[in-house]
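A further point concerns the way the authors explain their paired sequence and structure data. Showing the layout once, in full, would remove most of the difficulty. For illustration, here is how one protein appears when written out as sequence plus C-alpha cells:
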Amino acid sequence: MEHKAFRRFNFRVRTKAAAFMKIAQISPLVESCPPTLYGGTERIVSYLTEALVADGHEVTLFATGDSVTDAELVAPHDVALRLDPAVKDQLPHQLMMLDEVKRRAEEFDILHFHTELTHFPVVREMSRRSVTTLHNRLDLPDLKPFYEFFSEMPLVSISYSQRAPMPDQVNWAGNVYHGLPKDVLPFTAKPKERYLAFIGRIAPEKGPDKAVEIATRSGMPLKIAAKIDAADRSYWDEAIQPQIAGRKDIQFVGEIGEAEKGEFLGNACGLLFPIEWPEPFGLVMIEAMACGTPVLAFDAGSVREVIDEGRTGFVVNGVEESLAAVRRLDSLDRKTIRETFERRFTVERMMRDYVEIYQKLLDQRRATSASIPMSATARKGSAAEPAGFPSNWRG
C-alpha cells in the first residue's frame, strides 16, 4: 500500500541546466527505499533517486530488493535487514554491496554514498568520482580522527550545525537540506482534533519523556507514533511506558508509515520535537510543515536552520518555555507554514542542489585529468584517469 502510493508521486522535475549523468545512489540496507515504516535516510535516498530519474538522468539504486524505484535496482539482499529475522549482523551485507559498487564503478559519473563511513577504505582511490552525504551525528570522539585520515573524500552535510565537530581538513562539497515531494503529505488547513504529536524513535535523545511532561503540564492530549529499537527497550519499559500506562490523554500508536503520517501530523495542533542531542536535520520537522502543522522544538542541532521562528514554529529552551509556546501554536498560520515548506524543503530543490554538486565534482575531475601529461598517464596507469582508481580494481 505504501509503495504503491509512492509510485504516484509526480515530481515534474526538469533542471535542463545540467548535463545528463550516470549516477549510482548507494543506500544503507537497514530499510527499503522507501521504508515501509520508520527510516529517514532511506526515505531521502528514495526521494532523491526518483527525482533524478524524472530529471532525465540514468540512475542505479543499490538498495534492498523490496525497494520500489524507477531507477535500475541492484539488490544485494531481498528485504530490509531490520525486518529480516535471519540477519544477525548487518555489516557483511553492507560490505558485499560495496564490493559490487566497486566492481561497477567505471559505469558511473558519480557514486553517491549514504552509508556514512563503511565505504571509505573501499572507495578512497576513486574518491574523485564519489560524494558522501553524512546523515548521522558527527560529535562522537572517534569520528574526528577518522575524517582527518580520509580528508580527501568529498562530503555533503545536511545542516551547517552538523559540521561543527568536524576537523578543518574535511573536504566539504556542499550542504544540502532534505526535501520532500510536494504531494507526499497533504496540507491540512483545519485539524479535526486538538492534540500534540510526537513522532520518531523512543530514545532518550529524542525526548519522549519531555513530550509527555509538556503535554501533561499544558493540559493537552498527546499522541506518540514511534518505533522502539531493541537497544531502547529498557528505556521504554522503565522511563516512558510507566508514565503513560492507563492514561486516556496519551495514546501510543506505535510505528506508522507514510499513508498514516499525513493524517497523524495534519490533525495535530503542533509537533513536539524536544530533542536533547545535536540533531543533524530532523526530517519530521519538514514533514509537519508540509501538513501545515507548526513545530515546537528544543534549541539543538539543526533546529534553528529548519524552523523559521514565529512563522513555522517556535524554538525553545526546555519544558518551561515550551508551556508558553504551546499556547501560541494556534497563532501561526498553517497556510504560511505550508508555503514555507514549498519554498525551502521540496525534493525539487534538494535534487537541484545535489546535481549542482555532482556537476562541480565532474568539472573538477575533468580539469585534473586534462592537466596530467600523457607521460604521467603512461607511468601511473589508471590512477591518472578520470576514474581515479587502480587498474587492478577493474571487474
Notes: The longest strand covers residues 196-201.
